[in-house]
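Hi P.,

Sorry for the delay on this. The queue was packed all week, but I finally got your sequence through. Input first:
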Amino acid sequence: MSPAAGLVARTRLLDPSEVPDLLAVAGRDGMLFSRAGTGFAGRGVAARLARRTVGDALAAIARDDLVGLPGTGPVAFGALPFLPGADTDLLVPELTVGVDPSGRAWVTSVGPQGSVPDPHAQLAAVLATSGRPSPVDGPSSFTVAAARPPAEWVDAVATATARIRAGELDKVVLAREVTVTADAPISVPTVLLRLSQHYPGCFLYLVDGYCGAPPELLVSRSGDVVRAHPFAGTKPRRGDPDADAVLAAELLASPTYRHEHQVTIDVVHDTLLAFSSYVDYEPEPSVVPLANVVHLATLVEGRLSHPPASILELVDALHPTPAVCGRPREAALAVIAELEGLDRGRYAGAVGWLDADGNGEGAVAIRGAEIDGRTARVIAGNGAVGDSDPPTELIETRAKLQAMLSAIVRP
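Then the structure:
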């Protein structure tokens, strides 16, 4: 019997004065997928659904939905592993709050038939036990250690670029891992609060202890509208407005970075086109500045053919993109397995939400950390092409690692 059998999802609108802070709803052990105050947060687990059956299981949950928007009714959160085909569970919260970009908000309670709580009362009870993170809570000392000597990683990148020049593949992304060990448990709500302050334009996610702030939308589906916002091509910021302006111009003018970026755009466009009546993308990439780096990014948008593919079908088709894997995919995966020297787990997988109608959003699960008590595992990678400079790639991974380390390591 499905773990969702006999469940009912009850959805009600929230008055604008009732819309809560999504971080407060998620707390330490909840679920979160949001950006700039919109998105979803959940608390409690009504059902844990296997990835391969989650669509049917969500559709089997009875709905008492007075709102009728994408993301109402039962919603599942998931952080899918990097390796294609690796199985995982997705979580249906007992309580979910959704806020869409127009400001409309709702609350959904999920429970057994005949005992579903009133959504408003359940939300009030959750908020009554959610305190604001305190800057005085948490560790006072930290140890940060690389899992692999930097020089060894640079050698691996040199080997990969030689293979690219020899024609084995076009691009590969190699990642590095560092471990943070603290003298007290690391506060997940505090880390998320810091990320929201430092990276207000990024997504925030929390699923089963994995949290982060990625900038890149892998794919979203709302009705028949499909969108993606691939990022590829990165340089560390210098902290001076004039210097950063020069950096942005260099990034746009660089044949190496433009090639790396276009490889990703072409794959995303061609993949989505197979599901769509049309797909188009911006004629020129934009430069997206974050607190620590600048990226090249291009918005891709289209209309899905009918019946529209579900968000999970689109994620499966796109993931992993060249931005986190390489191209061709199978050749890049083989090089990663040989040279990277780590188990990525959920790093560079897909994280997001989906509803019973196949709507949803998925971000690329980068700039994140697996937090477990006093330890945090942080991974960052960089894309290499034939003329990439391995020491420069190392510098760029350090800039990317700093996004999470600065939110965790605060004595």
